[in-house]
Amino acid sequence: MRIAVIGTGYVGLVSGVCFSDFGHDVICVDKDPAKIDRLERGEVPIYEPGLDEILVRNVEAGRLSFTRDLARAIDGAQAVFIAVGTPTRRGDGHADLTYVMAAAEEVAKAAKDYVVIVTKSTVPVGTNARVREVVAAANPELDFDVASNPEFLREGAAIDDFMRPDRVVVGVETERAGAVMSEIYRPLFLREFPIMVTDLESAEMIKYAANAFLATKITFINEIAALCEKVGADIKQVSRGMGLDNRIGNKFLHAGPGYGGSCFPKDTKALARIGQEHASPMRITETVIEVNEEAKRRMLGKLRDLCDDSFNGKIVAVLGVTFKPNTDDMRDAPSLTLVPALVGGGAKVRVVDPQGRHEGEALLPGVTWEDDAYAAAKDADLVVILTEWNEFRALDLGRLAGSMRVKRMADLRNVYSAHDAERGGFEAYVSVGRRPMG
Ligand code: NAD
User: Fold this and answer.
1) Residues with catalytic roles
2) CB 3.0–4.6 Å: which of 97, 140, 241, 350 could bond 376 by disulfide?
3) Is 178 annotated as a binding residue?
4) Same domain for 279 and 342?
5) What is its pathway (predicted)?
6) What is the CATH classification number for the domain harbouring 75?
7) CB environment 138-148: b (16+ within 10 A), e (fewer)
């Protein structure tokens, strides 16, 4: 099977690399010359654990290559996956489909033989039908089908998620397209991972419904955490007690500073917009979006309270700025709200992140980057744990507090406990949904 993948971002690159590892011949295309140059040198332009090793293995085996030339990539391909970005459109919350439609048109103009044009990007219901129209208009002679194949991988665990998925969802209109998609995913089918074949609209809907549900679950537990603080309950115990119920499950029940990242914020907004357009309001999702914004504001309030109502002149060490551990992705990370508010309030902010610096330098002006938590905390007035990277999970709290000017910690991921902080010599400790120290 010969496959082309358009877009070498978090989804396109992982998909292309994994398809080649299945044994298919894969060419990945990107219009960004810097990304293709790096990939051709065997370098991975994003941080995703384990990706480099599989990439190199498949390039060496001659099954995987990279190009900027879309026409060359799709020459002879039986399937072309569109995995370009679908960010929030400015102003109305709708998913911006400019990149998807541009890619579809380029494929239409370059393709010669039968091809399945597969949308892997997250797109609103009806987009694949529009892709079909765009392709047919651009190349009326072309024999093709469209397919929807939404992606569910998580950054930071993307390889495992792709190779061992909970399910693969494939939306098709013809048996012929279904046969091509089955052939592509055959290695997963043989290992009995569920492959679900649906119509186009259901496949498109599954992705938004799943992401909105997960965002709801996180937001629900964050709201319960806020109430726990008021009534003196402990969110960790509450989450565990809830999660042991199989109907609820223990995943996505960790209270924190509000969800961020490249998917939940934009996909919840897009779903709300789709609901409005079809006069079927997504009231729960709309509320989730609002409550999540409130959660981020609440975190800022916690930091302000800890700093005696003023950030001015305070030295604040922020541990972690990526939206979650094991990725370099900063899109819609809570740090993008909290850090500028600290800087704007007059704090001197020092930042540490194992992978976030490359992206973060441009996004977080006015901060100083440090190599480790201890360097960041030296003489500081407050340390904030914002992303629960492993290296922040086992800090020597005595050493950390020992070098601080004022020993205060805001643990927005509930990595430690008030007891740990007290033992380490901290004078003040707050977390999310639990009693503060003292
Ligand atoms: P990304 O921004 O990391 O990558 C997109 C890539 O597409 C960029 O490298 C860009 O240069 C390239 N591109 C855009 N237009 C192109 C064109 N016409 N020709 C060639 N290359 C082009 O995006 P991403 O995070 O990989 O997300 C892609 C899609 O997958 C989005 O719709 C997203 O919602 C969805 N998704 C993302 C994740 C995730 O965890 N990141 C998970 C599931 C689904």
Assistant:
1) 263
2) 350
3) no
4) yes
5) Nucleotide-sugar biosynthesis; UDP-alpha-D-glucuronate biosynthesis; UDP-alpha-D-glucuronate from UDP-alpha-D-glucose: step 1/1
6) 3.40.50.720
7) bbeebebbbbb
Range of the domain at 94: 2-198
How far away, in angstroms, is 82 Cα from ligand 1 center? 8
- 194 and 226, same structural domain? no
State how many domains the chain has: 2
Ligand 1 pocket test: which of 5, 11, 268 has the largest number of ligand atoms within 8 Å of its C-beta? 11
**Shared-domain flag, residues 192 and 249:** no
425 is an annotated ligand-binding site residue? no
* Residue 204: burial class (beta carbons within 10 Å; 0-12, 13-18, 19+): buried
Q: Are residues 187 and 213 in the same domain?
A: no
Same-domain status, 191 and 259: no
- Co-location of 118 and 225 in the same domain: no
Ligand 1 centroid to Cα of residue 354, in Å, is 23
Residues 6+ apart with CB under 8 A from 382: 303, 306, 307, 314, 315, 316, 317, 406, 408, 409, 410
Pocket of ligand 1 (CB under 6 A): 6-12, 29-32, 35, 83-86, 99, 102-103, 106, 121-122, 151, 153, 155, 262-263
Query: Do the interacting molecules here have an ipTM over 0.90?
Result: yes
**Same structural domain for residues 168 and 213?**
no
Does 283 belong to an annotated binding site?
no
Does 209 lie in the same domain as 155? no
Assess contact for 152 and 203: CB atoms under 8 A.
Answer: no
Q: Ligand 1: which atom is nearest the Cα of residue 123?
A: 32
Contact 14, 327 (CB under 8 A): no
